[in-house]
Amino acid sequence: MSMLRKIATARSLSTSARKSLTVGLIPADGIGREVIPAARDAILAVQTELPPVSFVDLLAGWDTFTRTGTALPAETVKTLKEECDCALFGSVSSPSRKVAGYSSPIVALRKELDLYANIRPVRSVSADPSKPPTTDLIVVRENTECLYVKDEKLTTGEHGKEARAIRLITERASTRIGRIAFELAKARPRKLLTIIHKSNVLSVTDGLFRESVRAVPPASNGAFDDVTIEEQLVDSAVYRLFREPQIYDVMVAPNLYGDIISDAAAALVGSLGVIPSINAGDNFVMGEPVHGSAPDIAGKGIANPIASIRSAALMLRHLGYASPADKIDKAVNDTLAPGKVLTADLGGSSSTQEVTGHVMKLIQAQY
Questions:
Q1: Which domains, and CATH codes, for the chain?
Q2: Which of 10, 149, 184, 226 has the most CB atoms in a 10 Å sphere around its CB?
Q3: Is 235 a catalytic residue?
Q4: pLDDT tens across 3-48, in order?
Q5: pTM
Q6: Residues 191, 223 contacting (CB under 8 angstroms)
Q7: Is 259 among the catalytic positions?
Q8: DSSP result, 157-188
Q9: Which position among 114, 263, 326, 334 bears the catalytic label?
Q10: Keywords of this protein's UniProt record, alphabetized (predicted)?
């Protein structure tokens, strides 16, 4: 994962100048309240390699909305901007129907903090350490626009109700997510970037995304001349993802496609419960497990904490703390590979607490 370390350096997220590390904790809804404490424990387990660490508990989510009338309190945003160096977000139970006054707090946070890059590594763990992973890719998802600008309206026309949504793709957002994707690809052995789009149908919006990403190398004075560029239509990309995942290295996509592709890719490595992500900008980073709030298992103590623990490691790595991140990742891999201490989503019978405890023991054994 050295590519994230390089990006951290390029973004001037300096570790030497940081005298303390304040982490905002936003469990939000459902199993977020069960897995974010596991991520917190992982950070505490490696705290000897970090500046003095403190945590700030913050509110957001559907439950917060039902109690207060707002899903993202202004105080949460203010605290993140003024007091925190980074954050961990759990999961949100956004309703599938329209609710007056409600909008997704995670989407809002990405915009408020300008966290324009959602970076989602998908890597399998082999029981035999000598064998390479069957899946090893990164989905780089533009995080601020596309259909997620939530510009929708419902009208009545000749044939009844008509619903329309405005999709926003800008050159600026596409260019900067393209640059992140090229930086990631350049730092990996294969140096391969696949641009995901549907410009054969959406020739204007996806066409702009495709052209903007392709324009990054010519504007970079040869910095990315060693990166091979490929393209794939989003529908065939999903098909090939399941049939031959080994063809992909780094995939860059607009917001909606990136969301779908990364969730689908989780099936290749066992569960959404093991896929981490970070929401990254130039001045802030927020870890976020890819899974949702899982209301069907919330409160039962069986949620998989691995994605949150991995997200904490990914966040630390992006901040420049490679060694403690390595220790967390090794402990996770050493937990998954034997297949003995697993939650139900991976075919096991261990509880959230048991898996978390096992990972913590393996972290501590490295000191």
A1: 1-115+281-367 (3.40.718.10), 120-275 (3.40.718.10)
A2: 184
A3: yes
A4: 454 444 444 445 657 899 999 999 999 999 999 999 999 999 999 9
A5: 0.91
A6: no
A7: yes
A8: ETTEEEEEEEEE--HHHHHHHHHHHHHHHHTS
A9: 263
A10: Magnesium
